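Researcher: We plan to redesign the surface later, but first we want a full-length starting point. Tokens attached.
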């Protein structure tokens, strides 16, 4: 065993026996690879550091890296894990892709996400020809698709390392293998039930952080590839989540975003089952934490208990992201969503009754196989009734391997486009109207940072995530103020702290 001082700083890491410390004089070759997964990874972090040191000597400067993240907040959080490890092994982060090590953390939820990655790889291929020492890694959801990996093996042979979503915690170990080999290392797992805690993480923002509460998805909505690439649903233990959030708070975080594909089914498969509402109430007790957000809530599992927890817990933002996908009960059934139009509207009614100032946002897909104008008008009807504060609208994208991809009645793009445009117009009109309604109101704003354009202003966010700029100083960062929203500028507000604050 080797010595054990912890390199804490900005890293969220717990003291574990094999933590790397640059003051440790150790002969790594004499140490057997530890058995416990987390210690094993710290062992490889230490091993990688040796390689990075020699690269630094060769280059005459600290080697640089750039992690490009595609897709959702899960991927963003995963990227923070990659960055945490890369910094611990001695790389330095830079913003652009002219780095010594480029990593693409990919998304495959829609076809255009994949196309973006191939486009960028084309560019990197040329760049690497001029900089042969450069390393390229691909990971994330797209890599869980066998046809993608096959294509990369065949046509993108300059890539050094390919891994997936289930073994991301093994990044240091895989990187070490890649340092030891000249050929492409590919390691993809079909699924896992493992959750490895306590590896290094480097946050993108100092004041807020995503927190995984669960991984994977069991819902198999018929259009969606996520369950195939993220595996089966598994929840983290509440004590691990709470320990992580307390650590984050101690490190200056005031807002936590609880992440899961369907947070409403949290805890069902735990040894001691717990509901998401119970978890929220526990997290609400954490001292020093100011705001709690979560996403995503699947309507089929949204309980009254959750609505009451949101109503009662003062730290939980009064914002619900509640994907509708379609307003047509017929389409919802084929989508395998397990709710119909009426049930969805009923949830919205309950939410508005218990939490009158709640902000509701959504995701909508246009052009699902077999969707008629009549079905689409049902979606428009829900949009008008709910009056979403904002909505993400997507054109249906056929994902190979999903049940919807095999449906024969795919809707041609020229039929989808007019519907999509009509929806977008309606959604924007409603969100501008909703945004304008807040003008003149006084609302709590959590100050996140100094304004980047004007040093006399601070920038913060409302419960509904809208941005507010108002006069202030850096001492205000991390605190909540009641701010009068004097002017709505579309997507943001200009305000002033209420006089008696
Ligand atoms: N777990 C979340 C969504 C994750 S994917 C939930 O259930 O709401 C984010 C959004 O991408 C989905 O809500 C859906 O609107 C959209 N999406 C997923 N698959 C898609 C596809 N094949 N085509 C178009 N949009 C899709
Ligand atoms: Fe995809 Fe449905 Fe799972 Fe969301 S709940 S990730 S839309 S399968
Ligand atoms: Fe994309 Fe994977 Fe998220 S497919 S949306 S990055 S879970």
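Model: Full-length starting sequence:
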């Amino acid at each position: 065993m080797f010595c054990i001082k912890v390199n804490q700083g900005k890293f969220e890491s717990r003291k574990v026996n094999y933590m790397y410390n640059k003051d440790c004089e150790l002969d790594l070759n004499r140490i057997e690879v530890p058995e416990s997964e987390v210690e094993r990874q710290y062992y490889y972090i230490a091993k990688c550091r040796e390689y990075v040191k020699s690269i630094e000597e060769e280059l005459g400067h600290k080697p640089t890296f750039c992690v490009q993240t595609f897709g959702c907040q899960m991927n963003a959080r995963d990227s923070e894990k990659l960055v945490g490890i890369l910094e611990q092994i001695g790389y330095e982060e830079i913003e652009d892709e002219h780095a010594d090590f480029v990593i693409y953390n990919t998304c495959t939820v829609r076809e255009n996400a994949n196309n973006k990655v191939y486009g960028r790889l084309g560019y990197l291929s040329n760049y690497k020809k001029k900089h042969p020492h450069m390393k390229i890694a691909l990971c994330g959801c797209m890599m869980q698709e066998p046809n993608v990996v096959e294509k990369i093996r065949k046509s993108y042979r300059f890539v050094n390392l390919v891994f997936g979503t289930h073994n991301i915690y093994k990044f240091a170990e895989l990187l070490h293998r890649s340092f030891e080999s000249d050929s492409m290392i590919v390691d993809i797992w079909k699924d896992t039930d493992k959750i490895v805690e306590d590896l290094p993480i480097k946050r993108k923002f100092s004041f807020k952080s995503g927190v995984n509460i669960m991984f994977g998805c069991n819902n198999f909505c018929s259009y969606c590839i996520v369950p195939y690439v993220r595996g089966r649903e598994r929840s983290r233990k509440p004590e691990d989540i709470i320990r992580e959030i307390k650590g984050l708070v101690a490190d200056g975080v005031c807002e936590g975003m609880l992440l899961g594909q369907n947070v409403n089914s949290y805890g069902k498969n735990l040894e001691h089952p717990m509901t998401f509402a119970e978890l929220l109430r526990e997290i609400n007790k954490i001292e020093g934490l100011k705001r709690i957000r979560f996403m995503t809530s699947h309507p089929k599992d949204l309980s009254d208990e959750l609505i009451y927890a949101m109503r009662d817990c003062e730290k939980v933002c009064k914002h619900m992201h509640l994907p509708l996908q379609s307003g047509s009960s017929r389409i919802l059934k084929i989508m395998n969503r397990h709710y119909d139009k009426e049930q969805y509207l009923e949830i919205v009614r309950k939410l508005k009754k218990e939490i009158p100032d709640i902000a509701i946002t959504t995701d909508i897909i246009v052009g699902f196989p077999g969707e008629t104008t009549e079905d689409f008008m049902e979606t428009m009807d829900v949009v008008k009734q709910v009056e979403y504060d904002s909505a993400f609208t997507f054109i249906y994208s056929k994902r190979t391997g999903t049940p919807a991809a095999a449906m024969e009645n795919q809707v041609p793009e020229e039929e989808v486009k007019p519907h999509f445009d009509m929806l977008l117009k309606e959604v924007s009109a409603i969100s501008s109207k909703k945004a304008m309604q807040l003008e003149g109101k006084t609302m709590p704003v959590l100050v996140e940072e100094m304004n980047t354009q004007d040093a006399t202003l601070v920038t913060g966010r409302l419960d509904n995530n809208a941005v507010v700029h108002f006069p202030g100083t850096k001492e205000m960062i991390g605190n909540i103020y009641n701010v009068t929203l004097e002017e709505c500028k579309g997507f943001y507000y200009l305000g002033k702290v209420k006089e008696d604050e």
